[in-house]
Amino acid sequence: DDPDDPATSKRPSTFLNVVALGNVGAGKSAVLNSLIGHPVLPTGENGATRAPISIDLNRDGSLSSKSIILQIDNKSQQVSASALRHSLQDRLSKGSSGRSRDEIYLKLRTSTAPPLKLIDLPGLDQRIMDDKTISEYVEHNDAILLVVVPASQAPEISASRALRAAKEYDAESTRTVGVISKIDQAAAEPKALAAVQALLLNQGPPKTSDIPWVALIGQSVSIASASGSAASENSLETAWRAETESLKSILTGAPQNKLGRVALVESLAAQIRNRMKLRLPTLLTGLQGKSQIVQDELVKLGEQMVSTSEGTRALGLELCREFEEKFLQHLTGGEGNGWKVVASFEGNFPNRIKQLPIDRHFDINNVKRIVLEADGYQPYLISPEKGLRSLIKGVLELAKEPSRLCVDEVHRVLVDLVSAAANATPGLGRYPPFKREIVAIATAALEKFKNESKTMVVALVDMERAFVPPQHFIRLVQRRMERQRREEELKNRSSKKATDAEQSILNRATSPQQSGGSLKSMKDNKDIQEPSSLKTAGPDGEITAGYMMKKSGKGSGWSKRWFVLNEKSGKLGYTKKQEEKHFRGVITLEECNIEEISEDDEAPAKSSKDKKSNGPDSGKTSNLTFKITNKVPYKTVMKAQSTVLLKAESMADKVEWMNKLRNVAQSKGGQVIGEQSFPMRHSLSDGSLDTMARKPADPEEELRWMSQEVRGYVEAVLNSLAANVPKAVVLCQVEKAKEDMLNQLYSSI
User: Where is the composition biased (Polar residues) (predicted)?
Assistant: First the structure.
C-alpha cells in the first residue's frame, strides 16, 4: 500500500506497534519472522532490509498454520511466505541505488501471529537511518521498542546505538523490550554467554537493568518452513520448542521464562499492558473533556421537547431522582447544612436541659408547699411520697419545651436542605413551577414528620413522669431511718450513762462475741490489737492494697479478691490474684456511699432459727462486712451491681479500709453513712417507723435532705432524656426524610 494514499494514511493507535531497532546484521528481521511464524521478511548478514517495512498482522484462528492471507484494499489473496519474501527483496533491490526512505506496507492475516503491527527498520548504522528517520518511528509514545543485539556483542552492549536510541525516547523503559539474538553463534564464547546471562538476570550494565531481556536463536521459522509441505501441521510449534531446548542447553544458568519465542510474546504483552495502564488516565481525561464539550453544546441547543403524558411523567421522575441525589448529598455529606442536626443535638438541646430552673423548684419553701398541698400537714413527715411524686412530675414537665424546640430546630434544618437541594438540581432550574411543587410536597411531608416527632418526644417525657420506681421512695424511708438512728447514737454517746445503758441493752440482746461498738471502743478493745495486714505504696503512701472477700453479684457466695485503693484518683479496683495487671472491676468512690452493715442487713431473709444455727462466730464474722452503694438511686456502682458487699480479713483491716475509703469518698464528694464510727446494733423497736415518727429531729432538715435525694433522681432522668430525645428525632424526622419523604414525592408526582 502507498502510505501517501489518503485511504490508508490514517493509522490506528500505536499501542500495538512494535519497532525493531538494531545495527546491520543484528538479526532484526529473523526475530520479527519468529513473531509472525513465517519467513516473510528478507534476512541476510549484509543488511537485507534497506527501507522500513510495516506489517499489520491480524490473527485468524480458522486458518492453518501454513496459510498467509494478503489483504489489499478490500480484497484478500492467499500467498506463500517465499513469494512475499521474494517480492520484498525485488522492491528493496530496486530502491537500493538511491537514498529511498519509502515505507513498504503489508497487511497480513495468519493463525500464528499475534495481532501486532511490526515495523522492521534498516540497520541504524546505514546512511538512510538518520536521527529524523529514527524519531519518525520511535517517538510515537505508545510504540514498543524492540532492541535487538546479537549475542557476540553482548559484552559491549553499552555502546549499542539501538540501546542509546531506546533510552533517548523511553528513559524509564516502560515500552522497551530487549532481544539477544543468534545465541547459537556465540555458544563457543564464554565471555559472550556470561554477558547474556547477566542481561537475562537484570544484572547487566546500569542502562540495561530496567529492560526485560529475552534470548532467541531466530532460525526456528526458517527451519520449519524448509521442512516443506509434507511436514505436519504442528511443525512450527515443534521448531519453537526445539529452539527453547537448544537455548536451555546453551544458557544453563538463565531463567527459563526468558528463553524462546513464547517468552518474547509474553514480554511484549506485558509491556503493552503496562503502557496502557500508564496512559489510561490521560486518555480518560481527554474523553471527559470532549464529553463536556458535547454536553455544553447540547445545553445550547436545548433538550428534546416532551409531547406525551408518559414523556412528561418520565421527565418528572428523572428530575425527582436528581433532586433525591442532591438532597441525600446535602443531608449526609459535607455539601449542605446537615451538620446542623448534630449541632442541635450536642449543643442547643443539652444546654437548654442544663438551664432548666431546677434550683427554684427544689427550693425548700417550694418543696414544702408542694408536699403540703399534696399530702396535707400531718402525714408528710412520715410518708411524703405523694408530694415528692408531684415535685418530680412538675420538674420533668419542664423538659417538654426543650424537646419541642429541638424538634423545631431539626425541622427548620431539613426544610432548608430541601430548598438548597432543589436549587442545586440543574434540571429543576428549567422548570420553575415544577420546582416549587417539589419543594411544597417535600415541606408538607416534613411538617407531618415534625408533628409525629413532637408527639414521640413528649411521650418520652410523660413516660418518666408517669412512673417513678417505688424502690426510690423505699430507699428514702430507709435512709431517713438510718439518719435518725445515727442522731440517736450521737445523743447517747454524749453521756456516759446513756453509753452504759446502751452497752447493757447490747449485752442482753446478743452474745459477747456478737456485740459491736463505736470506732473508739473498737480501738480501745484489747481483743482488737492485731496489726493491719494491708500494704501501702507510692511516694505519699496513697496506694493501699490487701485481700478482702467480695460477695458475688449472681449468687450468695463470697470470693477472695485482691483490692487496690488509689487515694489520688479516688478509685478502688480489684483483681482475682495479686499478680494480675488488669483490674476486673473499678469503683469510683466519688459517686458512692460507704455504709457499715450488720448481719440483718446482709441477709434479711434469714429466720431466727437460721441465725441461731449460725453459731457463736456468726456475729463476729458479720462485723467485718460493709457495703458500697451509689449516692444516686438505681445507678450501678460497678458493672451491673448496684451494691457491692465487702468483708475484711480482720477487724484491724476493716478499720483501716473504712477509714481510708471514708476519707477518699468525703474528699471526692461522696457520703459516708455512719459518721466517724460503726453504728451500734439496735433492737427492732429502737429503729421502728413509730419511733421515727414520734421523734423527728428537724422536720425541715429531713425534708431538705429528701428533696436532695429526689433532685439526684430527677437529674439522672434529665440526662437520660438528653440522650434519648435525639434518637427519637432522628427516627421520626431524619430517617423518614431520607426514605418516606422521597417515596411520598415519587407517588405524588
Answer: 501-518, 615-624
